[in-house]
Amino acid sequence: MFVVAGDDSKTRVDIVELKEHPFFIGTQFRPEYTSQPLHPAPLFLGLILASAGSLVLSSLYMNQVTEECAIVIK
């Protein structure tokens, strides 16, 4: 398990991942509160993309989902 985010004092873990798993992430925050129909929260979009199989994302998505993000389905 890999810790990818925590608080500034390094006493609380906020996000963990399993690098060897196609999509495994655990969070302490509520990503659904930032999701909108045309602008889904990155965690929800990532889950959909991972479950769809062979999807290629632009490097822009890997940093932050924006209106100019390109998603290509193979």
TrEMBL record:
Keywords per UniProt: Membrane, Transmembrane, Transmembrane helix
A Gene Ontology biological process term: pyrimidine nucleobase biosynthetic process
Membrane-spanning residues: 41-61
Single Gene Ontology MF annotation: identical protein binding
InterPro entries from the UniProt entry: Class_I_gatase-like, CTP_synthase
Record-linked SUPFAM superfamilies: Class I glutamine amidotransferase-like
Top-level taxon of the source organism: Eukaryota
Gene3D superfamilies per the UniProt record, alphabetical: 3.40.50.880
Protein name listed in UniProt: 3713_t:CDS:1
Organism: Paraglomus occultum
Lineage, opening ranks: Eukaryota, Fungi, Fungi incertae sedis, Mucoromycota, Glomeromycotina
